[in-house]
Structures
1.
Amino acid sequence: EQLPYSITGTTIAVVFLAALMWDLASRNAIVGWVLCMAANQAWRLALFFRFRTLRIAAHDMDRWAQYWAAGSLISGCLWGAASFLFFVPDSPAHQAFLIVLLFGVVAAAVMLIGMHMPSFYGFVVPALLPIVLRNLIEGGTGHFVLAFVASVTTLAILSFGRNYNRTLMESLRNRFQNEALAHRLAQQNLELERARVAADAARSDAEIANRSK
């Protein structure tokens, strides 16, 4: 249900990054990266519409979850590739922008994919690990500090996503348990009502029989 919002946000971020890097990075790399992003998002959108039009059986949900996780993994890898394709070594401002954009995209995705941990890990790890590696490769005190900060932030996001998933699962579990309990109580009340009606009918029959005698 959240996928259209995710695709909209991703499209805006992709266009913004491509426009910013148009004169700073290889245009072939930019066009290729944008086309790969567009293809993946189009496939996920088609998956979204197909999911909404089909009656999905419970035993097929795992297969659909794998599709979802595959799309998240591809998205994560493409965002991670941006750390190497669009990293401008001699421009700290562009480096800072790239880092902020990557972590912004990932932070926004936590609430969208945090309910499914394979999708969550499949997106977050390949999206953020490359920016850590890229700063380590650059070397120097400043880049080592950035790599450290990025690593700590990545671990914090992973921890938050795990806690969010745990809270959500407990909430859903409690909800279903309450629904099951309410259903059982309704069934018991129905059975009690049937028993009362049967008792009233038996009492009425007994009274009629007594009057007949």
Note: Residues 67 and 203 are 62 Å apart (CA to CA).
2.
Amino acid sequence: MRTIVVTSTRPYTGKSGIALALIGILADRGLDVGYFKPYGTMPVIVDGVPSDEDAVYINRALARPSAQADVCPVVRSQAFVEQILAGAEPPSHEQVLGAFSRCSDGRDVMVVEGPTEPAQGTAAGLSSCTVASLLDARVLLVDRPKPTDLPEEALAEGAALGDRLAGLLLNGIHESRLTVARERVAPFLESRGFPVFGVLPHDAALGAVTIAEIVDELGGTVLTAVDRLDDRVETFMVGAMGQDKALRFFRRKARKAVITGGDRADVQLAALETNTRCIVLTGNLPPSIAVTTRAEELGVPMILVETDTLTAVERMDALIGRMRLHDSGKAARIREILERDVDVARLLTACEID
């Protein structure tokens, strides 16, 4: 049996989606593929068992799911944090290995989702390097290089992993930086002995959220177009200027949410004349009748929230762009990108999979 740990240099690199796509590719080659996530950071309770949100979704996507309690044996809940800070010992490596053994029983390949960043899991004894050594695995490192900087996180983590590193994927690269990533960053990493199996472009649709998710995140009240809450939002803009400038500004982006004060009718009307999916009205200030009438005509939800604009922006920034895996369409799209832009054969050879 072979084991691949998919880990990353920083949050929101698309690690979970890549792990799921890799499972699908291996399964289509006739291999019995299992999944394991030793350290979960998105706690949920499923059938009375603590687990991780992504781990639950990916395990259920397997042709032969494992017992959920084994799939993610250590979950960073608030209670877990308090226990560790109070001096409690984390679960032993023997316990983690026992869970892995049950998940891997009869499998040809195990895909293990490692920590989000190198330091994550250290307090629990489950950093990327430790997990790779513990499970005798090769590591696929996912990086999203900063636009105008050297790929130092990838260099540092690659060096720390040593011979365990199979290679890297550079993921979520903006169109304007693709040429640099492919012709300069990837060759640079290769010259340092770190194979790069592919450079994957940024896809705005993968980070999109529904308007309903925005409503939930902001605790808002929907005033118009309540039948459009399943529409997807790919980005957001803040409206704090005059109407003439606002119109030019809002035309720059499509499929967006606009955040503005509830008393800014001029900005709201300008937003409605562009490709706007919803408008978030801050300060608990309801819009004018003229604005709500126009929004209803155009089918644009207006969401009234109690928070100020800065708080709404911070919450939206954390919400949009973070790829939520629990969507079959997104999962299929990730796999399509992976098969198109990654040298899968080279990746599998590096992981010693025929």
Note: The CA atoms of residues 348 and 354 lie 7 Å apart.
